[in-house]
Amino acid sequence: MESKELLRKYFDPVYTEADFFKYTFNILNKFGFTDENCIASVCVCRDEISQSLRSHIIQIWGEAFNFSSLAGMFTAGKTGLKAAIHHAPKVDDRERYVFYVIPHIAVDEGGKTGFCKRKGIKEFSSACGALCLFLDELYTGKLHIKLDEEDIEESILKRRLIKEISYGDIPSLLELTHIARKVIQEDLELAIGKVVDTSKSDYAMLTGIQIHAPDGNYIWPAESYVVIGGVKSELKVE
Ligand SMILES: [Zn+2]
């Protein structure tokens, strides 16, 4: 079965990664964002199978600032965001930033979530592994949310995501991936609200979920918008 058809059960529509980035680049061009006048930044997982996102972004926008840790959580904080915007081109007295928020999930040939194949490994492997570990702790009833200095990123992830889950609930991996996307966007927006001065800058927020399917990677587009001169306009990425 073609992956697009397989994925329709969970994600509709989906784009190939190349198409998604070309498409969003073209949309943003209409709002004045070009590869010459803006800086891109990303919240994507550290997983090597998520780095194709960065490769596409670099090809289209140039080198991108990385805000994220495991699962794509926004952990760079106000300091990271201040650094990124400090590095933005200043063209016609304005700065422009493009933020991509894209956590990930795998879907195997049978339509099961969380499993993918990796180069040189016979067994199926999990994606997103960091979210799967958190889910395992929920399933076994042994959730460790103490800040572990030897496992900083995973413990921050668990402490942040548990706040979004009702007591006693155990989300599916698919649900948790959607929660992660929303949380990453919200945490980044919180920092943007404190750091970005919209009287001198415009920005775009593009969010979605990267899906590792049997025949390649896809992106399901989620909430996306631009803020131009302080005015927010939703983008229809569908
Ligand atoms: Zn991951």
Detailed description of the structure:
- It is a single chain.
- The protein has helices at residues 3-7, 17-30, 51-61, 77-86, 129-140, 152-162, 173-195, and strands at residues 15-16, 39-43, 64-66, 90-91, 94-101, 104-106, 115-118, 121-126, 201-213, 216-228, 231-234.
- The chain is an alpha/beta fold and 238 residues long.
- Helix 4 (77-86) crosses helix 7.
- The protein binds zinc ion.
- Zinc ion is lined by residues 45, 47, 71, 104, 127-130.
- Residues 45, 47, 71, 104, 127-130 line the site of zinc ion.
State the main characteristics.
single chain; 238 residues; alpha/beta; nine-stranded mixed sheet; two-stranded antiparallel sheet; 7 helices; globular; binds zinc ion
Summary, kept brief:
This protein is α/β, with parallel strands linked by helices and 238 residues long. The protein contains seven helices and eleven strands.
Biggest β-sheet strands, sense, barrel = 9 strands, mixed
The geometry reads as globular
Strand portion, in percent? 25-35%
- The helix content, as a percent range, equals 25-40%
Low-pLDDT stretches are none
How far is the first residue's CA from the last residue's CA?
A: 23 Å
List the helices and strands and how they pair.
Layout: H1 3-7, E1 15-16, H2 17-30, E2 39-43, H3 51-61, E3 64-66, H4 77-86, E4 90-91, E5 94-101, E6 104-106, E7 115-118, E8 121-126, H5 129-140, H6 152-162, H7 173-195, E9 201-213, E10 216-228, E11 231-234
Parallel strand pairs: 2-3, 2-5, 5-9, 6-9
Antiparallel strand pairs: 1-10, 4-5, 7-8, 9-10, 10-11
Helix pairs in contact: 2-3, 4-7
